[in-house]
Every structure is written in structure tokens, then in C-alpha cells.
Amino acid sequence: MGYLSESEVRLDHSNSADSIFVNKVRSRPDQGGGPIFIRENAVNTPVGHNVIPNFLLHRVLSVRGYDKDYLMQEANITAGDELNVIIKRLFKSAELIYLHIHNVKTGYFLCFVYRV
Q1: How does DSSP assign the chain, residue by residue?
Q2: Superkingdom of the source (predicted)?
Q3: Following CA atoms 97, 94, 74, 52 in sequence, which dihedral angle do they give, to the nearest 10 degrees?
Q4: Which of 64, 67, 75, 80 lies 20 to 30 A from 105 at CA?
Q5: What is each CA distance from 76 to 94, 96, 110, in whole angstroms?
Q6: CB atoms within 10 A of CB 102
């Protein structure tokens, strides 16, 4: 199984107005140019190896697999509680180096999963 990055910005479910807007610069084919929304008072939350954070478990997710040239080679839609199965299946392919996980409804990027 791959690993989620060792820390992430925790985005609590909130209607708080204290968020900021940051534009993302596209420099590779796997990077979109859309906005990044982060709460002003967000904190880094450590994520252990082989652990799927709870915030992913109750969403419908798009899981996209990328190769060494940053090109998407696989794409799947799954329920969050099935994410572990999809990650293991995708990483059986030696061609895939890392995964992107997006929220299906909004298309927002949620996190990376890396093979180590």
C-alpha cells in the first residue's frame, strides 16, 4: 500500500468565513490551475503510514494514478470506505508512482498517496 503524506492541512467541516484563497501555479501535467482553500487557523495533522484519514472515509472519491512522467494512467471512482482496496489494486502496477485523490462531487483535490 502507498502512504499519505506525513502531514496535511486539516480542513474541518465548517462554515467559517476565516478562509484564504491561494492560486496554484501549474508546472506539470498532473497539476490543475484551480484554487486552494485553506482555513486561516488550520493546523497540520500528522498522518501515519498506511493510515487513511477519517475525512476520506465518508466521501465518494476519484482516485487517479500517475506515472513517472506525471501522466494519468488510471482513474477510478470509489466510496471512501473502499479506498484501501483501490489503493492496493492500483499500486500492483509498477507503472504508477503516486495517486491523486479528489472529491467526486466538487472535483476538489484532497491529497496525494505515494508509493514508498
Answers
A1: --EE-SEEE---S---S-EEEEEPPP-STT----EEEEETT--EEE--TT---HHHHTSEEEEEEE-TTS-EEEEEEEEGGGHHHHHHHHTTSTT--EEEEEETTT--EEEEEE--
A2: Bacteria
A3: -60
A4: 67
A5: 17, 14, 15
A6: 19
CA–CA distance, 113 with 98 (Å, rounded to integer): 6
- Number of CB atoms found within 10 A of residue 64's CB: 19
CA dihedral of residues 80, 26, 46, 4 (deg, nearest 10): 50
36/98 Cα distance (integer angstroms): 20
Tell me the pLDDT tens digit for each residue of 75-107: 999 999 999 999 999 999 999 999 999 999 888
